[in-house]
């Protein structure tokens, strides 16, 4: 089971997460309490192993700015959490993770409109456009809706429920942010516990490629 830790803002946490077994690190460049400067993200990335995915999170940003930041920082993937169109996603030079917020059973119909590398299924949008860290009913996701899609499922994952999420969805990767924080700060003990729980689950990776994300 692969794991992505999102909302990283310092090198110590990034390196600890990787040491614990994280496969991907996420940086937020949109309005958020976890927003990181381009300079700081670039410095962190220079210290990370080449095989670790470096994902930049953006919300309704212009293409030129996304490309500039991605190139400067050394990102490997771009995650879009706004109202970006399929054409916009396809115009970017890096692999795209497009977020879709689930508000009802019909929300997932939007998956059919996106042919980007990954589709991120998140909970209802929060204050700044990204996820609000709340889980939604995972049972509303049917195998047919995500068939032949590389899906990222976001919203409310933490060390207590990650094994259940893996059992239900059989994901390829899980991703967490607020679920490994204490009082708004990344908690290394929670990160280690989350990764251990996720990687201790051997039921995933068989249905399709899914990444779970909690903003």
TrEMBL record:
GO terms for molecular function: phosphoribosylanthranilate isomerase activity. InterPro entries: Aldolase_TIM, PRAI_dom, RibuloseP-bd_barrel, TrpF_fam. GO terms for biological process: L-tryptophan biosynthetic process. Keywords: Amino-acid biosynthesis, Aromatic amino acid biosynthesis, Isomerase, Tryptophan biosynthesis. Coiled coil: none annotated. The keyword Cytoplasm does not apply. The keyword Chloroplast does not apply. It is an enzyme of class 5 (isomerase). Residues 3-196 form the N-(5'phosphoribosyl) anthranilate isomerase (PRAI) domain. Its EC number is 5.3.1.24. Pathway: Amino-acid biosynthesis; L-tryptophan biosynthesis; L-tryptophan from chorismate: step 3/5. Belongs to the TrpF family. PANTHER family: N-(5'-PHOSPHORIBOSYL)ANTHRANILATE ISOMERASE. This is N-(5'-phosphoribosyl)anthranilate isomerase.
């Amino acid at each position: 089971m692969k794991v992505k830790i999102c909302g990283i803002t310092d090198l110590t946490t990034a390196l600890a997460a990787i040491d614990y077994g994280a496969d991907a690190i996420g940086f937020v460049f949109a309005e958020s309490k976890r927003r990181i400067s381009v300079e700081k993200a670039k410095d962190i990335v220079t210290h990370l192993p080449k095989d670790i995915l470096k994902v930049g999170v953006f919300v309704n940003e212009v293409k030129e700015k996304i490309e500039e930041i991605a190139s400067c920082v050394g990102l490997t993937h771009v995650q879009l959490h706004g109202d970006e169109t399929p054409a916009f996603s396809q115009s970017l030079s890096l692999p795209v993770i497009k977020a879709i917020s689930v508000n009802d059973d019909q929300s997932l119909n939007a998956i059919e409109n996106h042919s980007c590398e990954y589709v991120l299924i998140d909970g209802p949008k929060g204050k700044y456009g990204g996820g609000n860290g709340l889980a939604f009913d995972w049972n509303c996701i049917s195998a047919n809706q995500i068939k032949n899609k590389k899906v990222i499922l976001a919203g409310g994952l933490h060390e207590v429920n990650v094994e259940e999420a893996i059992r239900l969805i059989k994901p390829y990767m899980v991703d967490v942010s607020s679920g490994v924080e204490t009082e708004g700060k990344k908690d290394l003990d929670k990160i280690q516990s989350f990764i251990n729980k996720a990687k201790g689950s051997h039921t995933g990776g068989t249905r399709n490629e899914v990444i779970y994300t909690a903003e």
